[in-house]
Design goal:
This protein is mostly beta strands and about 210 residues long. The chain is built from three helices and 13 strands. Strands 1, 2, 3, 4, 5, 6 and 7 form a seven-stranded antiparallel sheet that branches. Strands 8-9-10-11-12-13 form a six-stranded antiparallel sheet, covered by helices on one side.
Length: about 210
């Protein structure tokens, strides 16, 4: 059920009470609902709920502000984004239509995320990822810059906590589009990994 009334020129309220989708590429959305308000100065999203076959996503309400609606696409990288995702459950296999290798990564994770900043400069973030099936964890808190350019993304982790089993390390390495023989040998040789500390660097070193 989708209600799309026009308030006045360039101002809309879109209310999606219930929607499902099966896309030919493999994306399956079992339930989607949201209330969206679009004006010439801001876009607000409230009550967003999305359920996929093995994932459930319900972010906090958020608002994007811009100089005018026609400039939204130009200003998306420079506008401040304040987003939160609490107690989400994500299964990477649900998103295999975007990256086919994810079809073999059929595991459910509890995900919490806080993000505040811009895509073109610097953003603060706090992310916690924990598989539902075991005690491993990835917890990262810090800053990231240059998000709009993933090949040269800069990161500074003030607090990073990792506990990964050897099987999970092998699964993660298998998802990489390119990997050296040395990396594969190391991943096969690693036992469980537990580490806590700080870290900074750039994705340019991985290219």
């Amino acid at each position: 059920d989708v209600v799309l009334p026009k308030i006045k020129r360039d101002d809309y309220v879109i209310s999606v009470k219930r929607m499902s989708l099966i896309e030919h590429s493999g994306l399956v959305i079992k339930h989607f609902a949201s209330d969206v308000c679009i004006t010439d100065k801001q876009l607000s999203v409230a009550n967003l709920k999305m359920k996929l076959p093995a994932s459930s996503i319900e972010p906090d309400d958020f608002t994007l502000r811009y100089s005018s609606l026609k400039n939204l696409s130009k200003e998306i990288y420079s506008m401040n984004i304040n987003a939160a995702l609490k107690n989400a459950v994500l299964n990477p296999a649900d998103f295999r239509c975007f990256y086919p290798k994810l079809k073999d990564f059929n595991r459910r994770f509890a995900v919490n995320l806080l993000f505040n900043g811009t895509l073109d400069k610097t953003a603060n973030f706090n992310v916690n990822i924990k598989p539902l099936e075991d005690n491993s964890i990835v917890s990262l808190k810090g800053k990231v810059s240059n998000i709009h350019n993933p090949k040269n993304l800069l990161f500074s982790l003030a607090d990073a906590k990792l506990y990964l089993t050897s099987a999970q390390i092998k699964d993660i390495v298998s998802l990489l589009p390119k990997k050296s023989a040395a990396l594969e040998r190391v991943s096969r040789a690693l036992a469980d990994v537990s580490w806590r500390g700080s870290l900074s660097g750039s994705t340019a070193a991985l290219n």
